[in-house]
Design brief:
Helix content: 25-40%
Order of helices and strands: HEEHHEE
Strand order of the largest sheet: 2-1-3-4
Strand content: 15-25%
Distance between the termini: 31 Å
Radius of gyration: 16 Å
Number of strands: 4
Length: about 120
């Protein structure tokens, strides 16, 4: 395993988990983005939180809620605080996945997938 450009050496299991998380987030972006926009309009900057540890109704997805910046600031999660202060709510959202054993993964996500531009090859 080799580190990415300038990035610290990251274990393979972490890379796989991130890839899986990002694929799942992309599949569910159409639910997360409208929720993030609505909650931002009502409460300001915040994080969409998804509890991936439970799924009460298999046809309804995982429970999801929004925590605003004042709630995030009360935590010791510096990465989430940084993402929250830096994201552009007109085209991005921040999502936190709650995982087994109290683990979390937080991502700053583009609302719309980028389309490569330029001449076709």
């Amino acid at each position: 395993m080799t580190p990415e450009r300038g990035a610290p050496d990251v274990p393979d299991w972490v890379r796989k988990e991130r890839a899986s998380d990002l694929a799942w987030i992309a599949e569910n972006r159409s639910s997360f983005w409208p929720a993030a926009q609505t909650q931002f309009a009502a409460h300001g900057r915040g994080v969409v939180v998804v509890d991936t540890t439970v799924q009460p109704d298999p046809n309804a997805g995982h429970p999801m809620y929004y925590i605003d910046s004042t709630q995030v600031e009360q935590t010791d999660d510096e990465d989430t605080q940084r993402m929250l202060s830096e994201y552009d709510p007109t085209k991005e959202f921040v999502v936190m996945l709650l995982k087994p054993e109290g683990h979390t993964s937080t991502y700053r996500v583009q609302a719309v997938q980028r389309v490569p531009r330029g001449r076709p090859r």
